[in-house]
Design goal:
Structural class: alpha+beta
Number of strands: 10
Helix content: 40-55%
Strand order of the largest sheet: 1-2-7-4
Largest sheet: 4 strands, antiparallel
Number of helices: 17
Radius of gyration: 25 Å
Strand content: 5-15%
Order of helices and strands: HEHHHEHEHEHEEEHEEHHEHHHHHHH
Oligomer: single chain
Distance between the termini: 91 Å
């Protein structure tokens, strides 16, 4: 690139970029280089262990993820951006506590973040180009959409540190945010990386319902509820179904338990406001949707990408985990004859769980009735 700005100009540009980012709605902007060689052995060992599950694209691109320059030849810097997504009225605990409701990861309650964040990154790049009319900048925005190690880059850019749950954490902002990157061929000054602050805390490891965080900083995606309900296309392993509870799209447990998220601010981005049909939905209502209803409600939502079949699969598991209700058995039986083989397998499992709970409830009711009869007979004055 000819006509490269002076160091003084580059310094001022870096400050301008952060100001422009704030004006576009980003909560923080950081700048780093492209050297991720230290992460290559970690990535390779993770892949060798098979922790990526069915995410074949992870293995297909391999170590390219640690080499941003291969995505955009000539890249000198990465502008890393962060934007909060937690809505003001998230109702996390009340939804998780009610097994008749479906819990959707809070990031997916509003509009698809890929579109929202990428648009902002593109506007940021255009504004930078306008500030340098004498140069032809080479840049590319990414939002969870390319083979690139986003969290290590964000860590190097000072936006936070990678926590023991493998997500990015910020001391003032927690972890409930999206990140995106703008690769650019401009030698901007770099920010200092963030210092790790997890200390001895292991709350996220202990809170994981399926034990997916197999060690600090190591996630076995094959056990992760987010992977199982979103990325995984086949049957959910039977031994993990009960632990999924009422989580029908993703899981936030490791984040919700994290002490740093006590300080997590609510989002200022209206596009991330929850759709009311998804905030505290009844499982039976969701299970009654036709495919056209599913597509209509999830239009512009990240949920749509899993498709109707996986949606029904996830709901069947949640209904199997719900307390016994005749209405649930009726709804499941109605689906048996019209479901795909994948969904039917999970419907059959859910019916088995519901019938076991029914039998258990009948046993408990009989025991309770016997106890009451005994009290009335043995203690007539206190019956």
């Amino acid at each position: 690139m000819s006509n490269t700005p002076s160091q003084s100009q580059l310094h001022n540009l870096a400050q301008d970029i952060k100001q422009w980012g704030a004006e576009l709605g980003f909560d923080s902007i950081g700048i780093c280089g492209v050297d991720l060689r230290a992460h290559e052995p970690l990535l390779q060992s993770w892949l060798d262990a098979g922790f990526h599950g069915q995410m074949e694209y992870m293995a297909r691109h391999g170590l390219m993820r640690a080499r941003p320059g291969e995505l955009l030849p000539g890249t000198l810097r990465v502008i890393s951006a962060r934007i909060n997504y937690m809505p003001e009225d998230a109702r996390c605990a009340t939804t998780l506590e009610d097994p008749t409701l479906g819990y959707i990861s809070r990031y997916a309650l509003g509009r698809d973040y890929h579109k929202v964040v990428r648009k902002k990154l593109k506007l940021l790049a255009e504004r930078l180009q306008q500030a340098l009319p004498e140069l032809k900048l080479n840049y590319r925005p990414f939002v969870d959409s390319a083979p690139i190690l986003e969290r290590p880059l964000a860590e190097q850019a000072g936006l936070g540190w990678i926590g023991k749950h493998t997500l990015l954490l910020n001391q003032q902002q927690g972890s409930l945010f999206f990140i995106g990157e703008l690769l650019i061929d401009l030698p901007l000054p770099m920010d200092a990386p963030a210092n790790p602050e997890c200390g001895k805390c292991t709350a996220c490891i202990k809170a994981c319902p399926t034990g997916a965080i197999v060690a600090p900083y190591q996630l076995d995606a094959r056990r992760c509820i987010s992977y199982l309900t979103i990325e995984h296309a086949g049957p959910i392993p039977p031994e993990l179904r009960s632990a999924i509870g009422n989580r029908i799209y993703g899981c936030d447990d490791c984040q919700l338990i994290c002490p740093w998220n006590r300080y997590a601010p609510v989002t200022q981005e209206s596009d991330f406001s929850p759709r009311q049909q998804l905030l505290q939905p009844e499982l039976l209502e969701l299970f009654s949707w036709s495919e056209s209803e599913f597509l209509k409600v999830t239009e512009g939502s990240p949920i749509r990408r899993i498709g109707f079949e996986r949606w029904q699969r996830n709901l069947a598991v949640a209904l199997g985990n719900a307390p016994y209700q005749p209405r649930i058995i009726e709804a499941l039986e109605q689906r048996q004859a019209v479901s795909s083989e994948l969904v039917k397998e999970h419907v059959d499992w859910a019916l088995e769980q519901q019938k076991l709970k029914k039998d258990q409830e009948q046993v408990e009711n009989r025991q309770k009735a016997r106890l009451i009869r005994w009290i009335k007979k043995a203690l007539p004055f206190h019956a």
